[in-house]
What does this fold into?
Amino acid sequence: MNFIRALNSVWRENNTLLCIGLDPDPAKFPAHLQHRPDAIFEFCRAIVDATADLVCCFKPQIAYFAARRAEDQLEALIEHIHIRHPATPVILDAKRGDIGSTAEQYAIEAFERFQADAVTINPYMGRDSIEPYLAYRDKGIILLCRTSNPGGSDLQFLDVGGEKLYERVARLVSKEWDVNGQCALVVGATFPSEIARVRTLIGDMPLLVPGIGAQGGDIETTVRAGCTPSGVGLIINSSRAILYAGKGEDYANTARSVAEATRNAINFHR
Amino acid sequence: MNFIRALNSVWRENNTLLCIGLDPDPAKFPAHLQHRPDAIFEFCRAIVDATADLVCCFKPQIAYFAARRAEDQLEALIEHIHIRHPATPVILDAKRGDIGSTAEQYAIEAFERFQADAVTINPYMGRDSIEPYLAYRDKGIILLCRTSNPGGSDLQFLDVGGEKLYERVARLVSKEWDVNGQCALVVGATFPSEIARVRTLIGDMPLLVPGIGAQGGDIETTVRAGCTPSGVGLIINSSRAILYAGKGEDYANTARSVAEATRNAINFHR
It folds into this structure.
């Protein structure tokens, strides 16, 4: 799968910009899953199978698996998505960032071990720290630009010669680093004017937008600020608001209802 | 173990500022280890046992383990260091960075699963992204400041209101973020004048300095630029130049010889 082409297909064929973030927290699982050894896999698998036609991507967050020694369940989950939902790209949310020789190892982790179609990366160490990922020409490289957390402003909002640091990151990635057209940027939904600003800097490059739902970002302003002229260009992520909408055995159906409502709310404003 | 106190003890009792980075690449292992299922653990264990009296820390790089599905060997390695060399702190080089709820999971990964005494963190997402680590009061939090790779200048060297971004990071960490005295900074050995600049900004805070050896940094300039007035304050890392100095069955002894020479070269200039 080529990530950018697959994303463009699934945006149109599934008519959705919604991405479901898979952040499995066993403390929040329904009771019937609590003591299964594969509870993390099974919790996510049921959500995936109940919602695949409503999303443009799934985005597992590796920290939730690593904290519980469950990398094997993450491998099984991504394999399941590829087999059962082969049109749907998987973004591994890992936010790695290191020098070239170590970045090569992280690229192997993301793309060969876990078979992700795209990975999130931290830009702080500069261009050569992302080159090992770019060598995988079909994969998506999604760089942090303007994050949705309160401390995101500490560095990202600093003025660097007449623009903000996050604007510089957007320009560097789109004009210099992304030589093969395989990059995207993370811009939080809590800052719609900054989504709009980044959109003017990067043309049609995809934006991964976390922060709607539990983090409080507004759907209408996000869509208006970030869509491309043809009404795509956004990967709008929701995690907890969908995953933990239901608490009983039918949690996956409840998740589907919330995902469907979220997709529809997004589409209403496109 | 309290990381900062342990570091101050081992600097003095072992009379060394040297840290050995454990970046195990099976392609470079001696032939007799090549087909062992626990080759990664065993390669590192022999290096550790041969050099523990020469170092102030060991620093395993998690990417090399994760790329090969060898987290279990990393767990076993850190446990081995704690049991056999209980005075020597372990820094998990992971360079994580994410919002609070995910950072909590990464802190569990580093401190509870892997039992590291300190972890490296990326500052791009700001203060609240490091708070979950700071909640572990005995642990060390080592933030990227000025990295040793060529692309390190792309963002870190930008001017932000009369200072460079890496200087702002150094000031933010030492004056605002490090409320419990548990932080340190990464500054590459390839930039000795910047090590000196950071030292003036942060007082006695420890500096983790990668980049001597394979990356070409100079020991004399690093030591003169970075030591505190009492001749400590530095964790000077060498990885490949020590790990892969020998290619035969006696590779651990060869590693010891190089480590000893490196420690002595550092001490000559203190």
